[in-house]
Amino acid sequence: MDDFLNYLDSEILKLKSNGSEANCAVISSGCKLNQFEAGQFESLLKNRGFNIVDASNIHKIDERKMHIPLFLINTCSVTEKADNETKRILNRIKNKYPLSAIILTGCFAQLNKKTYLKAEYSNSGIKLIDNVSKLNILTNYNNYRHTTNNNIADTKKTLISAQKRIRANLKIQEGCNIKCSFCIIPKARPTHWSLNFNEVLSSIREYYKAGFKEVIISGMNIGSYNSSNTQSEKNFNSLLVAIEELNVPVKIRISSIDPIHFNDDLINILANSKKIQNHFHIPLQSGSNKVLNAMKRNYTFEEYLAIINKINSKIKDAAIGTDIISGFPGETEEYFAETLNNLNKLDIYYMHIFSYSDRKGTEAFLMNSKIKINPKIIKQRTAILRDVSLNKKDSFHKKFYGKTLSFLSLSNGQAISSNYIKGNIIYGSDEITASQDYYETDEIRHAQEIPPNTFFEGMLIEKDGSYEQNEGRCNVLFLKKIAEA
Fold first, then answer.
1. Which of 19, 173, 298, 485 ranks highest by number of CB atoms within 10 Å?
2. CB 452 within 8 A of CB 433
């Protein structure tokens, strides 16, 4: 960490001696872990004296008006497409800002470190920080702030201020032992780490004090969270129980959790919780047992189906999302048909569809080339699966038309329900005809637009057109604010 801080300080000194502005742009892609880490880096850079420039549209920035001498790129490498996007970003920056320094970190940097540590790249201003070093820098930076300032609250404030969305993101874990045959990420993030149990609880309290009403718990494999010591074992289930006992009315949303971590104890914790939102992302990857076995997913479709059915039977209005990979090596037409048939048995909300991407360094990459699927066929299967997902989304929305749900208002007049339905807030409309007397109450007629980050009761109203035509959004009729407990 000291080496990195010394590097930043030397860059600041060079800029000051040249009379240049110490502007820095942080660019991040990929998962919620990367988003969280990008916020941590922004806090760190601010504290070292840099001005953070919004680089969300880096191609639109006029380099003649805005000099950016330092870029930090936190990269993804989950697919070949993600790798190509990183290379495009690098080329774009080098073309527009040939004299700027670039800090390259994240999964792409970890997997390609031998290439980018070569003199031709280091001499061109690229400094590589692999994921092992990145984790060390970001986890130790808090301790550094504590010892230098002796002010824990100040450290948390700087980290919280880096949150860019209405719903806060808290990384609690890194590392994965599942070792799926298609996945390169365990090699890209090789360190196994869990945030201290009490630090998780303390961070949630601080997020709430800072005004956040919902906190997203994220990690690479959060079900494997373990903050054990010699006195006790603190696993993911015990963490959720402790969060439930916190004396703050914050809502908790759990990011993706693998099916092997779902047991009766966890489902009962979720079912009895007043804090945990009823939305769960549980990756399946394939509906064919033969393909699941080749993927080394450690469960059958029947076991997965039993988990989904149990969640739906115990948790009211639960929304369940999943991941599906199309075109995995050896996925015959028969196995794909089996996947389609089995997906119809799942009472879920949505599916994230991924076309199989060959990743060097995985077991799948080494599979017999004869069983690998033609890219055109993969594309066709991906399109079919996306249609299935859209139909599931439409069906899920229809179950709630005319019903009242709990929502959190976001920006731009939008909202998200406890079970992940996204919508545009409306305050009564002449176009609404059903139950007209109810809609024309004084409370609705005189309702003022509620500010972002407010919990309210809302009624889901059908929109003309499909889920896809409406960009996944319904109309949400505002009813009343929800008082905090």
1. 173
2. no
Assign domain 279-399 one CATH number from 3.30.750.200, 3.40.190.150, 3.40.630.30, 3.40.50.10420.
Answer: 3.30.750.200
- CA 345 to CA 302: how far, in whole Å? 10
DSSP assignment, residue 340?
Answer: H
In sequence order, the β-bridge partners of residue 127 are 103
Contacts of 149 (CB under 8 A, 6+ apart): 155
pLDDT value of position 121: 87
**Domain range 165-277, CATH class:** alpha beta
The closest alpha carbon to 163, from 126, 122, 120, 211, belongs to 211
Taking the whole predicted model, whether its pTM rises above 0.70 is answered as yes
CATH 2.10.240 for domain 404-481: no
Tens-digit pLDDT profile for residues 14-38: 887 787 889 999 999 888 888 889 9
For the stretch 370-397, pLDDT in tens is 899 999 999 999 999 999 999 999 999 9
Q: What is the pLDDT of residues 163-205, one digit of tens each?
A: 768 999 999 999 998 999 999 999 999 999 999 999 999 999 9
Q: Are 415 and 425 in contact (CB under 8 A)?
A: yes
Do the first three CATH levels of 165-277 and 279-399 match, i.e. the same topology?
yes
